[in-house]
Amino acid sequence: MPAGMDLRRILIIQLRRIGDVIFTLPVIKVLRENCPQAQIDFLVEEPADQLVRLDPALSETLVYDKDRPVHWLREIRSRRYDLVLDFLANGRTLLLTACSGARQKAAFTGPWSRSLAYNHLARATHNAYLVEQKLDILRSLGLKVGSWGWDIRLPEADVQWAEGFLKEQGVRTSRPLIAMAPASRRATRRWLPERFAEVARSLLSQSRDVLFLWGPGEREYIEDIARRAGDAGPGRKVIPPETPLLRLAALIRSSSLAVTVENGPKNLAVALGVPTVNIAGPNNPGSFNPLSDLSHVVLRDETLGCLGCELNACPAHHECMENITSDKVLQEIERLLSRPVAAPAAQGA
Length: 349
Hints:
Radius of gyration: 21 Å
CATH class of the largest domain: Alpha Beta
Structural class: alpha/beta
Oligomer: single chain
Number of helices: 14
Number of domains: 2
Strand content: 15-25%
């Protein structure tokens, strides 16, 4: 505990997205190690609250309702937090933090308006994995940050559902199950659907089962890729029904590896210890992938000067994603499948 800080009540704010919440989960363990007796709460929106609730080190999960802003201003104020860690720092959470009454209100540096709401602004390490960046706030407060990792213990009911569903679909535990998560809310992060279909077709012909993952609004996109893949061989092609978040996580955990673009399922796979092949272009691979872990591969065309642009619309021809061939992806899949299975290592110092 840093000198002069008596932290008895702490609030973590990360309302959304699934990936951002996953990147924030290791903060809970580090806070608990520093403040073993503290009340540590997490303010989050649905459906990511399902993941947050699984952490036994957390005191309470608060599910924010954006239709009741005044209620939440009063609620946060009434809880008399000593420290609020706002990892989102948008207009809504800035106001919540500013009105919280907390002695310490921390966020990352950013627009000048943040200086009005927060009395502690931290700089994140450039190019560091997003978990490490979030932990930079704790370091800047003088808290001790040692090794970190994820310990997501899925409910047995969801694990059994996934096992039963895959068995019903003819998926055999004796052969690899490759999960594919092709969709992204940002068009610039998507790989060509015909390339995903080519990879799936090749895997099916090699007796590999392929699991197509999808979320709200993505089913037609996924079904189109599955149709293009055809019925090329003895492998099973599986499209699950609309699936709650923890059942989706259980399906991912049942997989041998996941082939993804930058999206929530990719980050879930990393947190669950499932190897990934991530096709990347506009996003920063150092921030979005644990590059020190060799079970997670990032494929990019390193000859391009525009990589990591973070743009939502490509001013060129989207070469960063189009230049990645299905052969390159298949090569990395085979390499990962041939590696011995190892337990996920702890991260950090």
